[in-house]
Amino acid sequence: MLNIARKELKSMFASPMGWIILALLTFAFGTYYLNGVNNYFEVMSGAIRPAERVGVTQFVGQTVYGLASFIMLFAVPLLSMRLISEERRSQTMPFLFSAPLSISEIVIGKFLGLVVFLSILVAYVAAMLSTLNIWADIDFGYIFANSLGLLLLVSSFAALGLYFSSLTSQPIIAGILSFIALFVLMILDRFFAGDPTSTVLKFSLMRHFQSFGGGLIDTADLAYFALFIIAFLTLTIRRLDADRLRG
Amino acid sequence: MANLTVEAIELTRLYGGRAAVSDVTFSLQQGQVLGFLGPNGAGKSTTMKMLTGNLAPSAGSVRICGIDMIENPKEAKALIGYLPEMRPLYKEFTVDEYLTIAARLHKVASKNIKQAVEHAKERCGLTHMSKRLIENLSNGYQQRVGIAQAIIHNPMVVILDEPTVGLDPIQIRDIRALIKEIGQAHSVIVSTHILPEVEMVCDHVQIIDKGKLVFNGGIDVLKQQRVGNKLLVGLRQVPEAAQLAAIEGVVEVEPADDMWRIRFSEGSQPHEAIVQASVQNGWGLYHIAPDQTSLEDVFVQLTYQESAPAMSQAA
Fold first, then answer.
1. Total structural domains in chain B?
2. pTM to 2 decimals?
3. Closest by Cβ to A247, choosing from B55, B91, B107
4. Domain range for residue B55?
5. Where are the transmembrane segments (chain A) (predicted)?
6. 3-state DSSP call for residue B289?
7. What does the pLDDT look like over B255-274, one tens digit per residue?
């Protein structure tokens, strides 16, 4: 299982793709971080009433994590689309199937590989925000909650992306499909904003991420993400098993 | 029968009601090389996929060294090295990286990985290609990497689906030697289209046609069929066929191109008599040789014999 994860990580860094995505995202986060810090002083100098004042962690954090959740919507399908469909296309699936591994191990290994890659970014963002501590007294709890939320969010993206990748042998199709699916799940709460009691609302990924964004770790949200990930990993395992049985 | 490495029992695989492989039963002992022959679409690759656990059989079972592939797939797969028809290579890696991954996936202990990689490269003649990207290797070298990947964990059973495709003659010779070498200690199953190859490396042959096993036996049996009991004789002064047929032991004479094909009865040796008769009568003998039915002919015969009754059934 870990061997598969290692293999996936290695293959992400073997092509320019992994490096480029890392570089671009780092650049984007860095810019927003800088803007956040600059804006903070402008906005806060204008905010006279105490109720309007927020801490620097929350102010900058909101900017950066808001952007991160949005950008990951594009980045994760780009990375996840290759995971299985590329193996199908270049006929390397038998290599994994004939190794002494169960299908669950293959799928979870691939998922872990991608999550480890993405957690580099999450750790990077957290480290970047922690540098604020040099000048200010920051709220580490807030950063922790946000990082956890972001990690769970991108893991959910990865699980869904992995499933769509197992459906086709064309990485691009897998990428587009998972992007559309994720996009719908993200903005579901916008569609049903008029009816706050709607059940559909509960499926929105964004809504569950938002409570982490406020610094709140809620078990209901944890459970939502865990179920989301498990559901899509199970679907992927079943899809690959069907290959063996019917293919 | 203690050393059975592969047992396939009534393997059947249906694709939407059509049987790609039906009722294939065979077994293989340690130290045997099995050649797997058959026309395109006969079910060779399907059978191999089932043996390696890439495909679940619709019925029947596979046992590798006594371990059931369906019940204990992990243990069974650990004993197999498999090179599928399409080489499963990750082209973005170098040869070393790829083989290391292969060794790790096959649970080679981490302290032995380096040694296993070196050994596999040595056996497949890849030592000077270690740092090259697989993508940039020639077809033949990629094939070697594929074979190296299949033998890296020193498996009990090596299954190679058309291993000599795309290799140059020298490489083919090396690979054949390698297959023989592996076959001494372990078991090898090779599928191929090249019939002389079977004769060279295999000691058991199976011919599969339309999903059914039509021939299963030692290579000697096939060779015997091949040499047969015919002579091809070339004569300048063409005699009467009856004169030839009168020679002792000769059963049948038929013209073949500019020569005569002489079939003689089992056990008799009319060669000398023919030469003597030719000298006495001044026929001008310029060619006498055993008429070998090529392996291709045997192959066609075997696959045709089976399909004939099938056709009459359909009608």
1. 2
2. 0.83
3. B55
4. 4-218
5. 12-34, 64-84, 111-136, 142-165, 172-192, 212-237
6. strand
7. 777 777 777 776 677 778 88
